[in-house]
Design goal:
heterodimer, A: alpha+beta, Heat Shock Protein 90, 2 domains, five-stranded mixed beta sheet, B: mainly alpha, 78% helix, 0% strand, globular
Chain lengths: 270, 220
């Protein structure tokens, strides 16, 4: 290569142009990195939002299907099985010319059928969406508590604090289903002798608290069905925008609290 | 350090890049598999160019052919990286266009015995366009993975850096030669840029994984 004395002003231009080029390239790369990371955060937030929405919609759909099934079973119990049982009871009443011991047996069977009819009617009501929404949460829970006490399996105490106000059909139905799920779990697994159910109506804030004095559990020791039962409670609560809290430890019973902040939901809606 | 020694190190770097690409060949997506083959071809081309140069004292005919092949291979790599069907189609046309340009170049501008600077300059401009298009695609559908762990980012950044820097280098080189300035620093600079280019390609081949969910990749 030939070495010659460079023109200093031209070389200066070349030097500046090269520097500008590299500064521009570095600037572009930094700008891209910052923009990309911003997009990543934005995308992640959008994806999480979509996932949460999907989960909510999925849970709602699942609950709707469940409610439809309950309504169908409720109707079948009321319109079909109960009618058949009533007919059987009537037929039994019409049997004549029987001996004294046979009559006693017939009467016993009629009483049993009457009992089954009453139980099925109650079951049909507890499954029926229309019945629950028509009666309201307080009355429906009260009736269920009465049933529990009548069964003699557990002693249940029901308290209502504050001035009762409607929570909305959907919310009341979901809260009642949570109540049923908790009671079902208590009867199956806890071996509790006492059950306390409390509905707490404060201004804009509602609490459903169910506590028992059973064997309790630690979260790690739960089997699949128990775990999914508790998950059901959490999912149902999430559908109406409530927060559930399950507090239990071995030998210390279990307390389930469902907290519904209506004020917060109103603010979120606006 | 003599140019022969630098050339030997350059070949060793290429060899390492090829080994890392071949060792992870199954894990690589289609584009990066093709990139491995491109580097393998580069090694063969560089080696044979040297031998041919020693025999006939001019390796430029081979440089002309290799310039077009290299462009086609890098273009096909982008073909597999870019999602847009229209851009994919354009890439095929651009490869065809580059072949025609090379023919015109040999006939009208740079003979087979001359350095194919026109084709190389044109290639670098197209590489910059490819890189910008891929960056745009990355911005439109960002992946969950950290940007710095994405082989795609390193490869594309590398292409952008290489193409723009080499374009500048060629421009400065012709200016220096025209003004009879000492161009040796620029030659060293281009060697340095080449080393960086192939080392970063090696890194992107090492971190690429076709099983990683990169939303912008649709192939492999």
């Amino acid at each position: 290569m030939v070495s010659a004395a460079p023109n200093s002003s031209e070389l200066y231009v070349v030097f500046v142009a090269t520097t500008v080029f590299f500064v521009f390239l570095a600037g572009f790369i930094i700008y891209f990195i910052v923009l990309y990371q911003k997009r990543q955060v934005q995308n992640k937030a959008e994806r999480e939002g979509l996932e949460a929405n999907f989960k909510q919609e999925f849970l709602k759909a699942r609950l709707e299907i469940q409610e439809q099934t309950f309504a169908h079973v409720s109707r079948e119990l009321h319109d079909n099985i109960n009618q058949v049982l009533s007919f059987v009871k009537l037929n039994l009443a019409m049997i004549n010319n029987v001996t004294e011991p046979q009559q006693t047996k017939l009467n016993e069977n009629r009483d049993l059928i009457a009992q089954v009819i009453t139980d099925l009617r109650d079951l049909s009501k507890s499954l029926s969406f229309e019945y629950i929404t028509k009666q309201g949460l307080v009355k429906t829970v009260e009736k269920e508590v009465d049933k529990l006490n009548k069964s003699g399996l557990i002693k249940a105490v029901f308290t209502v604090n504050g001035d009762i106000y409607p929570l909305g059909e959907q919310r009341e139905l979901v809260l009642f289903r949570i109540f049923q799920e908790v009671v079902n779990n208590t009867m199956k697994h806890s071996g509790a002798a006492h059950l306390k159910i409390g509905l707490d109506y404060k201004s804009g804030v509602f609490n459903l608290t169910i506590s028992d004095d059973g064997v309790g559990f630690s979260a790690n020791s739960l089997d699949h069905s128990q775990g999914s039962g508790l998950m059901n409670i959490e999912n149902r609560a999430a559908v109406i925008g409530a927060v559930s809290k399950i507090d239990s430890s071995p030998g210390k019973g279990c307390t389930v609290n469902v907290h519904l902040n209506l004020l917060q939901q109103k603010i979120a809606l606006h | 350090m003599s140019f022969d020694e630098i050339f030997l190190i350059y070949l060793v770097v290429l060899l390492f890049v090829i080994i890392s690409g071949l060792a992870r060949y199954r894990q690589l997506n289609k584009a990066f598999r093709l990139l491995t083959i491109t580097i393998l071809c580069t090694l063969i081309s560089e080696g044979t160019k040297k031998i041919y140069g020693k025999i006939s004292h001019n390796s430029m005919p081979q440089a002309h052919v290799w310039a077009v092949i290299e462009f086609a291979l890098f273009s096909l790599t982008y073909y597999y990286l870019i999602n847009s069907a229209a851009i994919k189609r354009s890439i095929i046309y651009v490869i065809g266009g580059m072949v025609l340009l090379e023919i015109a170049n040999i006939i009208f501008f740079e003979k087979l015995t001359q350095f194919p600077s026109l084709i190389l300059e044109a290639s670098h401009i197209v590489y910059v366009i490819y890189a910008l298009l891929l960056f745009r695609q990355m911005l439109l559908s960002p992946a969950e993975q950290s940007l710095f762990k994405q082989s795609l980012f390193w490869f594309n950044l590398n292409m952008l850096f290489y193409a723009t820097t080499m374009f500048l280098n060629f421009a400065l080189l012709s200016y220096f030669i025209e003004n009879k300035l000492d161009a040796v620093p620029l030659v060293y600079f281009s060697v340095f840029v080449n080393f960086i280019f192939y080392i970063v390609i090696g890194i992107s081949l090492l971190i690429d994984n076709r099983k990683t969910k990169i939303s912008v990749l649709n192939n492999g």
